[in-house]
Amino acid sequence: MPQDILLILVRGVILVVVCLTAFAYLTYLERRVLSWFQWRVGPNRVGPWGLFQPIADGVKAILKQELIPRRADKVLYLIAPIISFSAAFTMFSLIPVGERVFLTDLPIAVLVFLGLSSLAAYGVILAGWSSQNRYSFMGALRSIAQVISYELGLGLALMVPVMIVGSLKITDIGNIYRAETWHPAYLFVLLPAGVLFLVSAMAETARIPFDLPECESELVTGFHTEYSSLKYAMFPMGEYMGMSAMCAIAVHFFLGGYLLPAIGGVDLTNWVGLIVGNPDAVWGPQEGYWTVVSLSALGLSTTLTFVAKTLFLILIFMWIRATEPRFRYDQLMQFGWKVLLPAGLVLVFLAALFVVLMPDLGGGAQSTMEVSMYVPR
Amino acid sequence: MSIELIGWWLMAAIAVVSAIGMLSARNPVHSVLWLVVNFTSLAVIYLIHSAPVLFAIQLIVYAGAIMVLFLFVVMFFMSPQARQWLRPALKGQLVLGGILVVAFLLLIIWGVGASGMGIVFNTPLIEGASLATDLTAGAGMGDPRPLGWWLFSNHVLPFELTSLLLLIAMIGALMVARDLKSEGRAIVPETAPVVSDEDDEQEVLA
Amino acid sequence: MTRISDRRLELRHDPLLTEKVVYSVGPQHPSLPAPVRLVVQADGELIERVTPEIGYLHRGVEQLCARRSYAQCAALLSRCEWLAGANADYLVSAAVEQLAGIEVSVRAQWLRMLVLELSRILSHLFWWGQLGLEAGQITAVFWALREREPGLDLLELLSGHRWHHGWIVPGGVRREPPAEFYGGLARFSGRLREALEHFEEFFSDNAIWVNRSELIGTLNSDYAQAHGASGPVLRASGVDHDLRRDAPYLQYDRVSFSVPVGEYGDVLDRYQVRMEEMRQSLSIIAQCVEAIAHLAPTTGGAGGPARSAGEDGGHGGSPHQGIEVPAGEAYIAVEGPRGELGLSVVSEGGPGPARLHLRSPSLYHLHLLDELCRGYLLADLFVILGSLDIMIGEVDR
């Protein structure tokens, strides 16, 4: 029992450290990428290529004077950033990053993920409401409406691969992209679902062109107008982590997870697995040392693949941020309810049809068979 | 004492405290938030009882969706400064309510005892099982598939009826909120009446 | 592109009798170019009334001008119209010339035209970037400033100053442009012509932008004329009026250019009119350069200023500081980047005006906001504001 707790603690610390570093360098990356789009240089003064800029930013954020509006609801005002920050971090702990590299791999990870993403909304809502500012309040209102609306598209898009695979476990869904289970027919439903997911995720994480809860030109900075110092910094932290988590989930569901690309029908992951993951088959029986090496090689190669894929999606998010103007609030709602939601419903219907009509493919067949075991007597 | 049991007692305590908090909070927004805490601790209790699907659903549906909607509505009417204390509308309401609460509590205790499910009091919680194995094995209530199967086969009629009921309630709410008489008439044609900004400035000064 | 109807929402009696919200936008707000306060009364996000409160940037320029020489007036007034300071310089010079009966050489007139059109382009570029920010397009402003920079360098080459150059002086221009000016100008024009195509891709073909601007903030031509709108705002509403063509000054009657006119007076029209104006200005600049090439510099360099006092001007004393302007009244108007920029001068003789008044288009346009925003959403307010291209320095003088 104590070693379990210790393990959990160690994993938690690893998560937080990795996430904080990732956050810091995502801000750096975003600033550099945006400046490339905008014909400027971006942060390049602090350290080599400006690499220490995030540290300087962090120190600055911590040392800033902390202001709390006198008429704010103090408890909620203080809790709000913590909620949005920790929800995003917890979201990240659900996601496996490589072959056998994960903190948790829950059988209901998809549900927990959706639950956390709706809980994260509380941070925004409470921040806007408690700080007694009309801009903040308006930002909070917009945020609730936006999160509720786009959660639907998000959930429906996630349901498509879930239905095909018949599992709510993230690694199960990622495994559909292995060469032996993959079928090109999946593309017909998975590709549109992936687009739907990315659009909804962009709205859910309030990125341009959906950044209405905090749109600078209208609401100053929206729900966190009244925040300062570290409490202010926690919102972007949560936001970036939320965005990364969304991208990571998208990678698992629609981009083949941490699997290396398959070339000519041969899954590279299997090759790595074959050569180093299963050394007995290649070099004969070996001792524990070699197993560790081979497993870490497999873990490392898949983790790097995963990070690369996630970064690719994040870069797409940044690209869109640099090029698109912002939606208007009512247009956003209309888009969510009249375009994304029906599209999601149609996709779910198609996926159901797919599972029923082609039971030989993938995990769908398996799941129906398994389910039939539960047919009540 | 297993870690599950510790967690259970902790969550139970939080659930009770947050329920009391919800009732006694003087700002409705705080009430809503206490309820969210209550729902979340309930969700964790489900998890401890090896029902991760119920946990997730409790989190998504109750703590997530429904309470956000509650908050959405309540937030419109309440400023963070507002403190309201509802006075009882009927004479002797509090006494009657108290009696009913005690009666209900007794009923629950009796019911739990009679059903032989006095889990906490009689038997150690979840014999031999641990949270970790349940979560990874996906056994019993941990599996969403039987739940889905039951819901969409045996109980599909009540399920659909519930959604219909909710739809009717929603349409009804819309109809109540809309004043049909003034429909389509522009009351503020050319110039809108000026709302004084003085209140705000006084607020700021206050 | 056909547009069907106004997208203005009907303000209706609120059956729930909910409270109206009053947003105080400004005086400090990320979207406002300079301090001004907009009191926005709204039903939720639906705007019912916008009341601009001005005066946060009041510097008493007109009063100051009544106690200064004409040269100093020009310097002060160019601080009101800071994105296109050449207009203010020209207004003061033209007023002095009219009152004193000074003839300006044709070459100097062409040079003045060139600089006026150049500053129109620079001002519009700034507007374009600002509009991008208001619409949530964060890249536009950097693209715009990047194209604007070589233009500012050109002005610096002319006069040594980037914004408030004071190159146009009574009697002509301060000095002949250096030889490298024309080469730089050609490069700038060529680059900008290309950049404008990119700009169009950025906005005009963007579905989100068209949705944000089409039939938003519509201004009908009657209302526009009745309330003193001018310039691109007026033309976008379908009124074909341009001082450069209808009341030509300088050599505008000798260049050919078209005046873009909108149809609906919405944000999209104002946007397109300004974009087209930039192209037209480029063509006018090309014509100016050609005309200048055919005119020999007059003696004294470039149809130089009336050097009545001191040969080189130097510090403190402007070349025309000592001008004695006879008594009289003059009203000079130019088609500035934002609309009809007029200067009314009353002289009682002496080196400075007795009274001076600037007719600034932004002041009129700012007060169109109430009409333009009513029935639109709060988010539209900022796009509409951006499309009007209001300069607070002109509003508060």
Describe this entry's structure for a reader.
The complex is a heterotrimer of chains A (377), B (206) and C (397). Chain A folds into two domains: 36 residues, no CATH class; 263 residues, no CATH class. In chain A, strands 1-2 form a two-stranded antiparallel ribbon. Chain A is globular and about 65 Å long. Chain A has 377 residues and is mainly alpha-helical. Chain B is an all-alpha fold. Among the domains of chain B are: 79 residues, NADH-ubiquinone/plastoquinone oxidoreductase chain 6, subunit NuoJ (Four Helix Bundle (Hemerythrin (Met), subunit A), Up-down Bundle), CATH 1.20.120; 46 residues. In chain B, 67% of the residues lie in helices and 0% in strands. The longest helix of chain B is centred in the first third of the chain and has 26 residues. Chain C has a single domain, classed as Cytochrome-c3 Hydrogenase, chain B (Orthogonal Bundle). Helices cover 45% and strands 11% of the residues of chain C. Chain C contains 15 helices and eight strands. In chain C, the strands form three sheets. Chain C has a three-stranded antiparallel β-sheet with strand order 1-2-3. A three-stranded antiparallel β-sheet of chain C has the order 6-7-8. A two-stranded antiparallel sheet of chain C has the order 4-5. In chain C, a hairpin with a 4-residue loop joins strand 6 and strand 7. The radius of gyration of chain C is 22 Å and the shape is globular. About 5% of the residues of chain C have low confidence. Chains A and B meet through helix 4, helix 5 and helix 14 of A and helix 2, helix 3, helix 5 and helix 6 of B.
